[in-house]
Amino acid sequence: MYSCLDTPNMTVGIANMKIEPTAASGVTSSSSDGALTLTGTVVSVGKIEKLFEKGFYWGYDRKNLTDSVLVEDSNSQPGTFFGTLSNIRGDTTIYWQAFARNDYGISLGDTISYTTPPIFTKENTFSGKTRSLFTSFTLNNDLYFTCGYYNILFNDIYRFDGAMWWYNIDTIPGARRYPVAFTINDSLAYVGTGQGASLSSIFGDFYVFNGNTQRWNGTPIQTPAEMPRYDAVAFSLNNKGYVVGGNIGSGIFSKDVWEYSITNGIDSWRKMNDFPSPFSGGLSFSNNGRVFVGFGNGTENTLWEYDVAADSWNEFASSPTNAQGEQASIHSGVITQDKIYLVDINNIIWELDLATGNYKQKSTLPDDFPSETTGQYMFSVGDAIYIGLGGIGLFYRYYPLWDN
User: Fold this and answer.
1) Phi/psi of residue 402, each to 5°?
2) N or C end of the chain, less CB within 10 A?
3) In tens digits, what is the pLDDT along the chain, a chain of 404 residues?
4) Are residues 339 and 370 in the same domain?
5) How far, in Å, CA of 178 to CA of 246, rounded?
6) Phi and psi for 301 in degrees, rounded to 5?
7) 83, 115, 147 — which closes off a domain?
8) Residues 78 and 214 in one domain
């Protein structure tokens, strides 16, 4: 338990022939996920009658350590002690010193500095042909993205394994933009729907990519006659795939929801209850049995949560409001643990707390992300979050727990 303690103006040295304590700051500190652990040592407690306290003064200005952590315990013996600072921002230098005091004086350790880990780290730049309007998925903690458009349509596929990009993978049959993807059993990815070279070329097929063999099944699976669409969303839940909404042509948006399952090698599609409103171009998030869909054209900046047991949708949140009092235009996002992280078209990151439904504005993307692009994409691979690839090759890892 910690409390604040103003820097005391107390006698240092022997007072009234009594002996003060002696404290020393630890040489090193340790950090983990937005927290910083400080170390101190009580070399001598001096003479104690009623009072003995030990702790740390800390702050962001070496000459003005105005904050403090007071370690409250009854142990008045010499030895090492610790204190933890929480919700510390990355890319920041913290200054601190240990202290110990008794009835007769205070002893201060040396002032120590520690620079916290970065909020963003630059990963290997994607050296393939840049594009937008692609789809992505993860299999076995590897990130894949495929298809897309930049002056031409693409049907290639790339894999990022957390360290480097892999390029020599079979292409998907049929180049397209605005496709969707979902996965089954963390080994199979289903990629389909989308738009071809002409506005009237709309796909309703799905091809299967095997993460173990790194190959596509050359024959598409059977899909419902109503499936042709582009700019829809898809998600995976309980080893089933779902396709929601999309543009079915001539600017007409759909609100139907289709569930895909496979049993003993037999494909099956089932039409579920409709989404609350026709929409396209939205986002979907699924993790730990919870699913959220929305923020697209036609949803009025609303995010909905899916109740799979009741096959119904419940309004969960609106898009965040920026400093100008306008609702932010969300481009991409990911879900991890109990938070959804979003990036808007102005390169600002937002955090949505799933427990409270409240937003926090976080950092802006690094300066080398140009503001005139079509928007950046977020990807979640295990516990890692990556950002980039929106018409450029930049690719960064984002550490949200240091973004305080």
Assistant:
1) -100, 0
2) N
3) 333 333 443 334 444 445 889 999 887 677 888 999 999 999 999 988 777 899 999 999 999 997 888 887 778 889 999 999 999 999 999 999 999 999 899 999 999 999 999 999 999 999 889 999 999 999 999 999 999 999 999 999 999 998 899 887 999 999 999 999 999 999 999 999 999 999 999 999 999 999 999 999 999 999 999 999 999 999 999 999 999 999 999 999 999 999 999 998 899 999 999 999 999 999 999 998 999 999 999 987 999 999 999 999 999 999 999 888 889 999 999 999 899 999 999 999 999 999 999 999 999 999 999 876 678 999 999 889 999 999 999 999 999 999 99
4) yes
5) 9
6) 60, 30
7) 115
8) no
**Domain housing 97:** 22-115
Same domain, 111 and 144: no
- Structure-token pair, residue 269: 């599609």
Residue 155 shares a structural domain with residue 109: no
Supply the CATH number for residue 374's domain.
2.120.10.80
C-alpha 228: how far from chain center: 32
Strand (E) positions, 128-239?
135-139, 142-146, 149-150, 152-153, 157-160, 165-166, 180-184, 188-195, 202-210, 215-216, 233-237
User: Within this chain, do residues 60 and 92 fall inside the same structural domain, yes or no?
Assistant: yes
